[in-house]
Amino acid sequence: MPRLGLGVWRAEDGKETKNAVAAALEAGYRSIDTASMYKNEKAVGEAIRASGIPREQVFVTTKVWNSEQGYDNTHQAFRSSLQRLEMDYADLYLIHWPVAGLYKESYRALEELYDQGLVHAIGVSNFNIHHLEDLMGTCRIKPMVNQVELHPLLTQKKLFSFCRKEGIQLESWRPLMQGRLDLPLIGELAGKYGKTAAQIILRWHLQLGVVTIPKSVREERIQENADVFDFELEPEDMNRIDALNENRRFGADPDQINF
Q: Where does this protein hold substrate (predicted)?
């Protein structure tokens, strides 16, 4: 699983998504994160095929939405996603949110899809520790990935430690806090390292060992976000960024979802 990928949440199906994915692949990205709910899987698949890059060299993630959950429904939702992507398999399939009373049955379907070779890795998204513990009490295959909101204002240290102990790869969505990059410390470090604020934050994620999927549809921003492998933050600067934590969410709380 590549450490850096492109997220396409809120990218419009068609030209906007295809152009973003094409720009990312041209810039060297080899991971694209989509979902049934994003309604742009078709454009993602079209852009990957048009790139000429062999399918096996691009890591494709998609997710089952809340209204699609349940054992039978998840099987059908996955097959519908593959049809829209026009692919024979997905690299990673996730449960998008922990819908009470449904996520265990949904995950049982994911295990079967994995057994059948239709997906190469399975996991969850937006699961807190208690969700993971509940799921792991009954599942056959431990989730391989947990994709959550994580950034300097929401460092998720307890969840991070739990996932590391359990061998679950943590992945960050909304790593750039919806573009709210004007934190004084981040600006200071951008000047120190000769990088942009976004690059500092993405580098922080990578050095933590967190996979990250910044979303953008602008070619120049997509390229900028990929330029994070030629420098390293010093340990004291990593700690200073950690200390920015406010437990502040820009997205929904998994314990209070109503959609």
A: 96
